[in-house]
Amino acid sequence: MSLLDRVPRYVRELIPYPPGKPIEEVEREYGIADSVKLASNECPIGPSPKGVEAARKALSKLNIYPDGSGYYLKKHLSEKLGMSDENFILGNGSNEIIELIIRTFIKEGDEAVMGDPAFVVYQLITKGAGGKALAVPLLDYTHDLKAMAAAVTERTKIVFVANPNNPTGTIVDRKEMETFFEAVPDDVLMVFDEAYFEYASGSDEYQDAMAYIESRPNVIVLRTFSKAYGLAGLRVGYGIASPGLISMLERVRQPFNVNSPALAAAVAALDDEEHLNRALEVNREGMAWLEGELEKAGFEVVKSFANFILFDARMNAAELYEALLRKGVIVRPMGAYGMEEHIRVTVGLPEENTRFIEALNQAAA
Length: 365
Fold this sequence. Notes:
39% of the residues lie in helices and 16% in strands.
């Protein structure tokens, strides 16, 4: 038996997460310049200048470990959201908190329920811990909460709900959410991944899960600074839950997991509401324009509450993706999510959106 043979079977069988291609790689591979990346749901206007300055100042103290408790960021979050500091856990992106949740609750043979397609990391980390991922098909591109509740068994430890969902951008119905809470047992952790919360929160149709935390100790809400706040490169996210649940997650959290520039930038970004509002406005205007142009061209568009659009390309998405790459436009084909003819495109700046539509019309002609 070799060393690698001793790696658990459920780890050897995993397929690593395929990140979107960086601009530099695309330009090297295709011999092009001035590419536009609309593949990873990043904030097109960039981070708050105040956040950048705060991160820059933190660089002068890189010889010192970061604040392991994240005191100042937790304090800012608690003031903004009206919660106690004890209701928060910080992570190296909200991805890390998903991993902490799995590490805390899942052992070999345990189950986690999730929508399909949804954020692929739910399945990857569950399987990587030896757990079983119960993937429940979406209904009209939206989480089928009734079917997800019905999928819960005695072995189920966690239910993941991405709201808004990635890669579809859809949200769950308010009334269905209430019924869902009643249907899922109290000893099953309900994870509401609200990475795109800021984009959806302006809609009357959207219901976040924050209101349920006080009355339901089996609820945790995940949010991030990677999307609307434009800090994807620094990796900082947070979870909100009852102090008891947070204390369990803290037991498996590694020390100093969020670096000093990230902590400083996140605090400053929270204070810069003007920049956040500008990011949301750019997204609203870009979303409306892109939806109109895609529908005008005859594509079926899924109504999105996030910062991206999923649409039916009416052709093989991988081939269309390659054609767009050659024109210097990077999007995300959805074949890995079981949607062979769908493309996900991030809402960019006006000139980026225009370039995408022009390239799409040429490639799909």
